[in-house]
């Protein structure tokens, strides 16, 4: 395996997943809340990261298996993914213009570990965007990686998810003042937009070979 190509696939997966996962939402707020409460943090972080990993593996392997013999379909799917990522980038740019903040309330009684894990899994699985992001978008980009490099891509994607949730959970007390500042989210959303467009461009360029 070419190390440079593997590194490119790894960082493509890492940057793509980071750009998708860094957002103000119910799941991230819940993880931050558990981190502030110091309650079942490891279980929550692992539940989120493992769920993401399973969905991404399903997306990449499923799309690669079903479309692997049809390069035109893979290119077409990549083009659709590029359009969605470009739109996501525009939305991130709009958020940067009028940034919000991520706040987590720590009130409430302690809950058993099992109930907390079920809560965060429910928040994740009942959110339709999780399937669009992990199965469709990550799956589309990953399926277009050469067969020997899909593992490196998935490793980067899974690492991004684990690092993000670990930072939210275990670094909650340090990150909360930062996430309460609109300026911080402005910078983050600008970075997210740039990463999304950086991933979308090669997908679009290859997809346009269909025409």
Automatic annotation (TrEMBL):
One of its GO terms (cellular component) is plasma membrane. It is a multi-pass membrane protein. Keywords: Cell membrane, Membrane, Transmembrane, Transmembrane helix. Pfam families: LysE. InterPro entries: LeuE-type. GO terms for molecular function: amino acid transmembrane transporter activity. It is found in: Cell membrane. The chain crosses the membrane at residues 6-30, 42-67, 73-93, 114-132, 152-175, 187-204. The keyword Transmembrane applies. This is Amino acid transporter.
């Amino acid at each position: 395996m070419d190390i440079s190509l593997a590194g490119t696939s790894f960082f493509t997966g890492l940057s793509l997943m980071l750009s998708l996962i860094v957002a103000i939402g119910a799941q991230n707020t819940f993880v931050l809340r558990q981190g502030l409460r110091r309650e079942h943090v490891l279980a929550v972080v692992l539940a989120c990261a493992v769920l993401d990993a399973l969905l991404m593996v399903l997306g990449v392997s499923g799309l690669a298996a079903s479309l692997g013999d049809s390069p035109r379909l893979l290119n077409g799917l990549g083009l659709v993914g590029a359009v969605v990522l470009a739109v996501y980038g525009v939305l991130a740019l709009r958020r940067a213009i009028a940034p919000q903040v991520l706040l987590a309330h720590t009130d409430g009684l302690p809950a058993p570990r099992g109930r907390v894990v079920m809560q965060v899994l429910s928040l994740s699985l009942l959110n339709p965007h999780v399937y669009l992001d992990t199965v469709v978008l990550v799956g589309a980009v990953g399926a277009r990686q050469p067969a020997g490099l899909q593992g490196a891509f998935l490793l980067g994607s899974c690492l991004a998810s684990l690092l993000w949730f670990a930072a939210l959970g275990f670094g909650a007390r340090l990150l909360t003042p930062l996430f309460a500042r609109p300026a911080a989210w402005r910078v983050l959303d600008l970075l997210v937009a740039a990463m999304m467009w950086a991933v979308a461009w090669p997908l679009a360029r290859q997809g346009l070979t269909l025409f």
